[in-house]
Amino acid sequence: KLYGKDIGEYDDLDVDQLLSQLSPEEISILAKEVDPDDNLLPPSQRCSYECEKEPTGPLDRKKLIEHINKQALETPDRPEAKPYVPGTIRGKKWIPPAETLQAQREVDEQIAIDLGDEYEMALTNATQEEIIDLAAILGFHSMMNQDQYHASLLNKGQPVGLGWDGITKASQPKAFPNDPPNTTDPDQTIKQVKEDDHKLIDLNWNNIKNISDEKFEQLFAALPDNTHLETLSLTNVGLTDRTALKLAEALEKNNTLRVINVETNFISPNLIVRLVKSLLKQRF
What we know:
This protein is mainly alpha-helical.
């Protein structure tokens, strides 16, 4: 669904036929707003390059792809400066240096740490499971595998058959159902914010795709005069610096919002700082 409407009726449409009916100006506008690889980041905000060459004819996508594949197959590989010959050594062969006596002494040397009689006796008589639990408490993650570490944290007892040299076996992954789609209607909630609806206290737009900048601007323009909205969730909705700046300006004039969530968006660190400062402005 898109904005609460079923778009299944458009599944059988021929995209190439629709594109052929567009004018060059309309195709240029579409290319700046639609990206099949990332629908959350308009190409106009990622790459400013535009081809200014005159068209050589009508666009035929199938022939274009065939031409690209043909060129790739017919283009010869770059010749090697020196062809590879199996068994031939080129340049100087690396020979590892011999170990010195000093390096050998450092390997064999043991560091003596005096922990006191009480701790020495406790560690000497401790079982392997107790040593593993102690390593987990001290944060020595490299001394144990994942099963041992999590068993120690949860106090479940060490897994049977796993020692210091134990290998963590793969466990069956748990399947979790996907989150249901967000069915909030942006147009309806914008209207409620503008009318200062007392029933709208928590506004959740999380994970709604393809929200236009115009709708964000309408929502943010209505925030200064709203006196009932307390929570605004805008997670993973494609917010950019331009729209986030509008939000920061609105927050400076709003004194009822208590919770703002804008994680997983395209907001730069400087705008994050600006948002935090705007939240603090009405609190002091």
